[in-house]
Amino acid sequence: MRLTRFAALACFAVAITANVLRAEAGKEDSKAAADTGKGKTVRLLTVGNSFSGNSTHYLGNLAKAAGNVFIMHPANIGGGTMAQHWEKVEQYEHDPNDPRGLYNTKVSLKQELGAEPWDFVTIQQASIVSHDVATYRPYAKELFDYIHRYAPKAEVLLHETWPYRRDDVRFYADFRRAGEPATQEAMYEGLSKAYETIAAELGVRRIPVGDAFQMANTDPQWGYKKDMVFDFKNAQPPALPDQTHSLNMGWQWAKQKDGTMKLTMDGHHANAAGEYLGACVFYEVLFGESVVGNAFVPPTVDGEYAKFLRETAHAAVEKARGREGK
Counting C-beta atoms within 10 Å of the first and last residue's C-beta, which end of the chain has fewer, N or C? Predict the structure, then answer.
């Protein structure tokens, strides 16, 4: 089953919109939590895209369950690259009245950096070019220096994103562009090496969400396995293939302009399980606490599977610490 480029882009746009709404809701939850004055408080600014929204969606819930407080602002661009973030910085510095230098919050990165006493600021690369280390340069260093200039007390962290689901349409020859990885494994190997290289160049820690996704995806018991018997050709809504233990949105029915329903694929963005796994990794790095015993579980995620995801997040962070010596 192959999708049109229009359908794939439409699916991506829906996911971006959803993550913007989640981010706005998350800021309200964070403010309410901060008012309690209890627990450890962590302040995070994300300089990223919808993958930042995915990975932090449940972070406030995990913090609250542990008696902590989480405050976050997103400085995100839908599908944004490091180059696009740096372009906004340059546009704002050249002309503060130029709307191109502002995010959809009508605020510049410079203003966001001064908005809170940030503990952490994350930067990341857009997923589709995450395997290509050349796309990080010189923008990762430019952003790193800019952040340190205007938020000198914040620790800059590199948010390692994840590979697409193994049956994502971007791995099909008709959709794959020159130089792009052809499989989930190839994409992971490329992005993992690129993030490690840039982290070493900047002297920063990684938030190893991509490592955790790969560990979960390849687990013999809990890893997602493509449905090989579903009849895509004759499928009718609401029938869907078996997507047990998927960390991505995957196959879903979408209403078209003519009113018909079409089976579409989003193997890029995280679903509730993927968002939970990403948040667990973020929690361990930002709060310096094990997430293994955390009581929060999203209502749509099975309890035993959630336990596996927490343990996987913990293992990924411990492995990253061992490699980085931190």
Answer: C
